[in-house]
Structures are given as structure tokens and as C-alpha cells.
Amino acid sequence: MEVLQAQEDRCPWKDESLKVGLSSLYLSDTKNSTPRTRAHGVVKGFLATDTRGGRTDHGVRVSDLQSGPRPSLHSLCLGVLALHLDELEEYGEYALPLLPSEAKLCLLAAARRRGELTNTALKLLVDSSMPVLDIHSTSLQVSSNTILCAARVMAPILKSVDITGCIVSPRFLSSLAEAAPLLQILRFGGFVAKDPEAISEAVLRILPMLEKTDAIVDSWEEALDEEELASDGGGGGGLRSSGRLMHLRCLTWPEMPYETKAICQSASPAVCINPSGEQVLARKLPSVFNPEVELDGEYLKKVAGHENWMKLGQEIVKSNTSNCVIHIADRFKMAYESQEKRLKKKDERLWRKATREVLSVSGGERAIWEWEDRF
């Protein structure tokens, strides 16, 4: 414990829970045959760091973990753990339960930037005390089933989800709304949807839609009867809550069709649909409503060396989004199909209009149409 005392003298402890946790993780010999000791070898290596020599037992330079002012011991510890996520995955069942929820969220943020966020890592690091799930541009490593499982685990306080770049289906959106009913911020998109209309319908099903209020009654007895029916589930105005995200405040889907956006804005005025950075500033909305602000950015800043990982994460996002670029031939095909749908709907409207005009003018034609309908 002499090394631990030396580290404590150089950097004052600000978190008593971290002090107790690291003290329990410090073991005298990592060569013991128990998996618990091997799992905690990373933490022991950090405690044996000689900052004057500038190198840890694992060959990691301290200068790689810090930039600017010297980070705290808590930040350095998270930085070393983030560099050894593969070891944490191997012995996660022994080491990860000892970490607080905030530390796990910081490791998730670092793993996403480093391109190491896999199904296994997500399952091991999720916790029921995490309010944010940001897996932006990890569609090639994390499956939709794993995302739903993580959302169910984090459901008690999960408020923000960013699955941009991940393939989303209508069924997935409905399942996500059921798994995380307290969701306030939802971001998705960045992929070529096979059926945009089905995605639009799924979005309309999960939004807190306004419904028409009850009709005006003539007496208080009738009003009382209406309230009793509403309490029994037979009516009532307000918001529809069945399978919907009643706490949703911001929805970001860059590829949302114009018609769907108009319907969402009219039916759910309390939800910000695809807000831009300028709109967030002008309307004085929370900064997290800005799609350019990363949901887990504040947690990544608590990890030593986060500046380099932020740059690495931006490169990974660019490489993943470049794979989602629509080919020019597919663009022409989508434009042609969209034009065909619009022309077909227009022809149907014109045909119905012409039919109504004929029936309204000629009584004989109306009689013939009625006779044909009978047979």
C-alpha cells in the first residue's frame, strides 16, 4: 500500500468512493491464479505509475493521457481503463461491478471514439443509473437487439438516445418507445431507409400526439358522465399515451420527409423536430437539442486524453457516414419512384374530381352509375 499512499500524497483525493474503490482494487500480486486478480491488473498498473518517468507499467506514456493542465487521479484512472477495454471485456464480470455508473458511462464514450464499442462491451458497461445512450455511427459493431437490451436496462432514468448511423426499422422504434418511456431526446438517421413511409408512420405512432377534446355539453350532469367514461377508458381529450414517448422534447431525423415533419409539428407542438444550432440559440433551448452537440461529450471530458479520442471519433464518424452515401444511380431511382407516386396520387384525385362533376351535373349519368353499382 506504499505506492497507493504515494499517489494519494501527490494528488489529493476528491472522491471518497473512488478512494475506497481503488483501495479495494489494489492487490499485492497480479500473478495469482484467480481471474479476479488478473482483471484488476490494469488498476494496479495505474497505481504503480511513475509520473516522473512518464511511463506506466503497461507502456503508456502519461503525456498521451493528458494535455494542458495535469488531470486528476480520477481522470487518469479512467484514461488507463479506457486503454484496456479488451481486458475489461475479458474479465468484466469481476471488475466492472466495482465501478460506479458514471465511470462506466465515461468508458462507453471513450470506447465509441476508439471504435471499440461492440455488443459485448455495451452489454458489460450498461447500468440502470445511466441517463444517456450514445452509440452514434456504430452500426457495424452493435446490433439493434443489443441496443434494445441496453435501453431496457437503462430504462429507469434513460432520457437521451443517439443511434444516428444505425439501421432503424419501424418495429425497432416501437420497441424502443416501450423500453424507454421516459425518453426526452431521440436522434436517428444517417442511413438509407428501405421504406421511408413505414418509418414515418412509426415516428407518428411514438410521438405524444394531441387528440380532439370532448364536445361541449349542456349540463353538469352530462359533463360528469363524460368524465366517468373518460376515467374508464372510454374517451377524454388531451394526449394519447399508449405506446408513445410522452416526455419526448426533441426528435432529430435529418432525412424526415417534409409531409411527415409538417404533421409532427402540428400534432406534437411541444416536440422540437430537427432543430438546427441557430434555432437552439434563438429559442434558448437546451444545448443538447443541437444535433452537433454530442450527448456523451461531457462524460468524455472526464477521461484523461479525451482530446485525441475526440479527433479519432470524428474520423470514425466520417468513415462510417461515407459508407452510407447514396449512389447517383440510387438517387435517380428514388427520385423516379417518388415522382411516380406523386403522379399516381394526382391522377386519382383528378379522376375522383371528374367523377363528382359528372354526377352533380347529369341525373341520367347518376342513375346509370347507381344501376352499375347494384350489379
Biggest sheet strand line-up: 1-2-3-6-7
Globally, the shape reads elongated
Could you say what the CATH topology of the largest domain is called? Leucine-rich repeat, LRR (right-handed beta-alpha superhelix)
Q: What structural class results from the helix and strand content?
A: mainly alpha
CATH 2nd-level architecture of the largest domain: Alpha-Beta Horseshoe
Residue-averaged pLDDT: 72
Count of DSSP helices?
20
Order of helices and strands: HHHHHHHHHHEHEHEHEHEEHEHHHHH
Give a quick account of the main beta sheet: strands, pairing sense, barrel closure.
Answer: 5 strands, parallel
* CATH level 1 name of the largest domain: Alpha Beta
Helix content: 40-55%
Rg estimate, integer Å: 28 Å
Number of domains: 2
Contiguous runs where pLDDT drops below 50 for at least 5 residues: 1-67, 229-237, 320-324
- Proportion of residues in extended strands: under 5%
State the fourth-level CATH superfamily of the largest domain: Ribonuclease Inhibitor
The tally of beta strands, per DSSP, is: 7
For the record, give the distance between the C-alpha atoms at the N and C termini, rounded to a whole number.
96 Å
Jot down its keywords.
single chain, 375 residues, mainly alpha, Leucine-rich repeat, LRR (right-handed beta-alpha superhelix), two-stranded antiparallel sheet, 20 helices, 7 strands, elongated, disordered N terminus
